[in-house]
Design goal:
- There is one protein chain.
- The protein is mostly helical and about 550 residues long.
- It contains 21 helices and 4 strands.
- Strand 1 and strand 2 form a beta hairpin.
Length: about 550
């Protein structure tokens, strides 16, 4: 039995423990050692995740590289791991982003400025900060690889703890005089919303186990349960299936975040460092949309089809609502947060359109949104750290004094509005096509979100980067080598996957087709099929 998946999960977990255990101190050499260890661990994790993705055979069985270790025998719970194409791609995305987040956050946990008594702000403990980042990575990767429903639930909830401390304990220093109070509020709101979703999901997990056990399936093993449900050996009554579906979906919708369960996200991203904000929206939130595909559709196929129209309406509202609020924002980070709410609406719409194009597009959107939003947010973080303000009105003319920073920010903005040739365009196009073939009215209205995306993305660029140079911007330095090392790979991947997305689609499509087969769903027939012709005459 291979231990590759376990190693990919264990390396960042062990790295988190090692980083936290390093000797504390305020000296630069000790902080540099901590950062180097965390970065090295994340690079090793990236190498392992890449090996997993390359060893996955798109033409093989759905779950590969399977591992299973007995955990709680009396309840049939095993620490089971297995990877499909979607999980492999999203785990690789996580592994790509974490080293870049660590590099971007290189000085975010350094001691703060000296106080009136000459002491430094020591609450920003370097070891704790980077250990928390690695802990989040480990838990997210386990969530993408878990094939036991209970194991998934445990790590789905456990990742909230390190994220809570990252938001509340290591927030944005440009937050103003009330920043400590605002960080605390944002962290508590994040935790309470997601804990509520998790408690509802726990009730559904227990309910599923009880029903399955009554029919001779005393297990939490996902492949066993989905196979038994698909072929009728495990039967859920209509009411029970709908209730269980809603229990799972509620937790995933909170984390996704789907309107109207989204209100924690702007607070959390606004008060976090740029690196933590990327972890929230590009890594942790993806677990919610991924779980909709894997668990909601796989375990509750009939309920998924029943609730799909209602969920599509909520996703559509989220697309337009998030974009409209992004247009009116004065705070750069909150603008990116509301833009992400709009983008997650597209992802969820693709999942529940229940078409191959929609679900392939939704999976690609998870990856492409992660890359483009990471680039956009991290460059915004570099900008904010130079000026010390998150307010759009405090900027102007940046492109004249920091052209490289402005250029990378422009690429991030254009990717956000899904410019053809950049990665998000491919996924957004597939989502809209897949939705239109089954729900044309929803697909048409959703295109309005593209127009609004162009509005908020270009207005943000215009107001911060062009025009007269503000006095406080005149001495702003351009991107440094470390910052270029962060942004360069994101820009390169955004362009590469926009031009050549085939490596991702080859991995993703078999898993999408397997999901549609599980729920007995096929793509709608074209409304106007191409007629066969013979001798120039239509038959």
């Amino acid at each position: 039995m291979s231990v590759l998946l376990t190693a990919t999960c264990a390396v960042p977990a062990a790295g988190a423990v090692l980083t936290a255990a390093l000797p504390a101190g305020s000296s630069e050499s000790r902080r540099r050692t901590t950062k180097a260890v965390a970065l090295g661990v994340s690079v090793v994790t990236l190498a392992l995740a890449a090996v997993v993705a390359t060893r996955f055979d798109p033409h093989g069985t759905r779950f590969q590289l399977n591992e299973s270790y007995s955990w709680i025998r009396s309840f049939g719970i095993n620490f089971s791991l297995g990877v499909d194409g979607i999980g492999a791609v999203l785990a690789l995305l996580t592994a790509v982003l974490v080293p870049l987040v660590i590099l971007a956050s290189w000085h975010d946990a350094d001691p703060g400025p000296a106080g009136p008594d000459g002491s430094f702000e020591n609450r920003r403990r370097t070891q704790g900060f980077f250990a928390l980042i690695l802990a989040v990575e480990a838990m997210v990767v386990v969530s993408f690889y878990a094939t036991d429903v209970f194991v998934f639930y445990v790590f789905f909830e456990a990742m909230l703890i390190p994220m809570y401390f990252l938001i509340g304990g290591f927030g944005d220093r440009a937050g103003g005089p009330d920043s400590a109070r605002q960080r605390s509020y944002a962290a508590v709101k994040f935790l309470l919303y997601n804990l509520l979703g998790g408690l509802v999901m726990l009730a559904a997990v227990i309910g599923l186990y009880v029903i399955a056990q009554d029919q001779g399936f005393g297990t939490f093993d996902l492949p066993t349960l989905t196979s038994a449900i698909a072929d009728g050996r495990l039967q859920l009554t209509g009411t029970a299936e709908k209730a269980l579906f809603l229990g799972f979906f509620f937790a995933f919708a909170v984390k996704a975040p789907l309107w109207p369960l989204h209100t924690w996200l702007p607070n959390a991203m606004g008060e976090s460092t740029a690196g933590t904000a990327v972890l929230i929206t590009a890594v942790v939130d993806k677990v919610g949309t991924f779980a909709m595909l894997r668990f909601c559709l796989g375990l509750f196929p009939d309920a998924s089809k029943t609730f799909a129209p209602a969920i599509l309406v909520l996703a559509l509202v989220g697309i337009v609502y998030g974009a409209l609020l992004a247009v009116g924002q004065k705070d750069i980070k909150r603008l990116v947060a509301y833009a992400s709410i709009s983008h997650f609406g597209f992802i969820i719409m693709g999942v529940f359109a229940l078409t191959s194009q929609g679900q392939s597009g939704a999976t690609l959107y998870m990856v492409n949104h992660g890359l483009s939003t990471a680039a956009w947010m991290l460059v915004a973080g570099f900008l904010i750290s130079r000026r010390g303000s998150r307010l759009i009105a405090d900027y102007g003319g940046v492109q004249k004094v920091a052209p490289v920073l402005a250029g990378t920010f422009l690429i991030g903005s254009l990717a956000t509005l899904s410019l053809p040739g950049l990665a998000p365009f491919v996924s957004e196009f597939l989502v809209l096509v897949g939705t239109f073939t089954r729900y044309p009215a929803i697909g048409i209205v959703a295109t309005f979100g593209i127009v609004l995306a162009a509005l908020y993305a270009l207005l943000l660029y215009q107001r911060t980067m062009t025009g007269p140079v503000k006095d406080d911007v005149r001495t702003m330095p351009d991107l440094k080598l470390r910052e270029l090392a962060v942004v360069g790979p994101l820009v390169a991947l955004t362009i590469l996957l926009g031009v050549y997305p085939k490596p991702l689609t080859d991995l993703v499509n078999p898993s999408v087709n397997a999901t549609l087969s599980q729920i007995h769903q096929t793509d709608p027939a074209p409304a106007h099929p191409v007629a066969a012709t013979s001798g120039g005459e239509q038959k």
